[in-house]
Amino acid sequence: MKPDNPNRVPIDVYLSFVSSLSGNRMTLLAGVIVHVATCLAVAAKTQSLVYILLSAAFLLVFCVRMVIFRHFDRVDKESLSHAGIERWERILVAGAACTTALLGIASGYAIFVVHDSFAELACIAVTMATMVSVVGRNYGSRLAVDLQTFSCCLPMIICSLLALDFYRGLLSIFLIPFWLTTRAMANGVREFLYENVIARREITIIADRFDTALNNMPHGLVMVDAENRIQVVNRKACELLKIGAPDRLKDRDLGAVLRYGARYSFMDASQPELILRQLTQVAEGNLSRTLIHFPEGLSLEFSASRRADGGAVLIFEDVSSRVKAEQKIMHMVRFDALTGLPNREYFGQLVQDYLAKHQRKSGPLGFMVLDIDEFKHVNDMRGHVTGDHLLCAIAARIKQASGNAILGRLMGDQFILFFPHAKEQASLDVEIRRVHAAIQGNYAVDELTFLVSLSAGYAILESAAFAMDEWSVKADLALFESKSRFKGGISGFEREMDGRYIEQQKLKADLREAVSAQALHLAFQPMFRADGSRIECAEALARWVHPEKGSIPPDVFIRLAEDMGIISDITRFVLFKACSECMNWPEHIAVSVNLSARDLRDADILSVVAEALAHSGLDAARLHLEVTESCLIDEPAAVRAILAELRARGITIAIDDFGTGFSSLSYLDTLPLDIVKIDRSFVRNIVEDNRRLKLLRGTVHLARELGLKIVIEGVETEEQLALLNKHRSADLVQGYVFSPPVPSQNIPLLQQGIGRRVVQRRRHKVA
């Protein structure tokens, strides 16, 4: 990097170089004293008047230069242009060149005229010393170096040659490399300093930018050395951890700083060591990142990386809002939106967690199912709003009466309770019956009083004999026994009820035979555009009509099929049948098929879907596959891979009943999804309850932000539909407001009916 041309040098650097020409004025004073003294000594020795005149010239030039320097000092340097700086350079160089020219003249005169060895030695020595000082004083200006060395050497060279002395002439020629060397030295110093000035300025700019970026980044950052001493810390880190100003923390031990924060700020005493321990685990690769919760609702997510020198970089961010949102979503999907009680899936998790925690404890456990008698009449006579309010009141009373029992809402008007270990079976039996008796009676809701009775069935078994499915069956059998006797009764499971269990086993055998014989049939519930103008898709629903018992509810035989492990056979049947039926519909209508958790446990479903599409000739784009959140709990990575492969083949993937299981933001964010089907529980009472509407809209907004299509299930009334359309909360609507499940041949008829209504409306508008 050579600043050969001043125009290429940044103006501030150029000014600093020119300013150096007027610096070190004490050396100028010392120099002029030496020059004058030397000339006077030579004049005394040689009796030459010329050297007296030269002494006077040195003094005059020095005084003129001092005046010029003072004038230059008073100039506003910041207002100088490049041309102005260049003009001052020429003025300052001219003064220096006058001095060196006088030195050259003095030396040349001594060589050519005086012929005195002292005069020659004194003048040449002072001149050579001055030339060397040029490197130290005037390196900033190439012009100054060239002009001064030239004006020094040229008179001596000319006079040595004119003296017609061979050796003096030879010596004078040696001044040329000395001149060039001096010039090269000055240029080298100038170039070196120029490079360093530029480099320092660039480093300063980079450092300023880095500091600005560091202190304006949304993440906290702490860089420590191998001894855990802080090397770099930004303002965000200090703000989040409340550990003081960044400039006070350099070279401090991170552990000591965190302990100080724990002592004088919001941090718990145990959290500094937790941060350091997890920092080590993250840096060593044992953890990718870690989340630490602090008081005052602060949640920080930490990640770290080990540096080559043994230090580490710790980065963390405030994820409090995300954590609160996830907790809110988690609460939404774990708890019933109406009553606030754990839903069925979360109830099961709570029971399993309790048993895992108390696995060494012995004693009887209780399991009770409650069913509100004739609750349907409340909805029919007083409306769903009043019915929902009554449900909430009943749930609140059950919660108040149940003590330390785990309570959940099973479905509709049913509740489920789990009673922890008791000392003896008799006392647990008394407790269960006490809870049942406490929740019977009058309920005041919406300025009305309802006399409510709840039938109950329960089972008491030792904890070693616990199995959730078996207990559910036993409690259901006991509940059936209670309801068959009288309303509001309670029955405990007894061995003779096993006959009912045997009956259920027979039902399972019949189901297996029906599946093998493909005796199931399908109904299809259409999904309409929100304005009802078109059917976009129809969901295939399996139906089973038992030859003796009649129609078996889907939730009954599907649950049995899952227990028996034949659900995949039903899925295969539904897939093949649904794809074939879809070929008879208008081309814009797709068909949707539900997949179970068992279907997604291995990759066999990929070949089944491919066979169904090939057998029917259906375009993959017309097939939708629905998965529930329970499918995603076990082996989520394998499920994600299978769904990604299905989606890559052009099949649409939907998550069904969103909001009823273990919903998580990670499902929507990481799974290859196209559609979110929001459960009917989100729609209930949205007309009357603004909070429910906000909850639904918030869920819809979250899904749409992720680019997902929205299907709202369970829309039953025109008021609900109008409200959904008002807020544009649905892309598709599925529910009785448009159509119940219908046979396959009815789907084209429904679409034709829509088309006729559209034509009639257009004609009516024209008329």
UniProtKB/TrEMBL annotation:
Manganese keyword on record: no
Q: Which PROSITE patterns match?
A: EAL, GGDEF
Q: Note the superkingdom of the native organism.
A: Bacteria
Q: Which residues form the EAL domain?
A: 504-755
Q: Which residues form the GGDEF domain?
A: 363-495
**Which keywords annotate this record?**
Membrane, Transmembrane, Transmembrane helix
Q: Which Pfam families match?
A: EAL, GGDEF, PAS_7
- TM segments? 26-44, 50-70, 91-112, 118-140, 152-180
Query: Keyword Transmembrane: yes or no?
Result: yes
Q: Please give the name of this protein.
A: EAL domain-containing protein
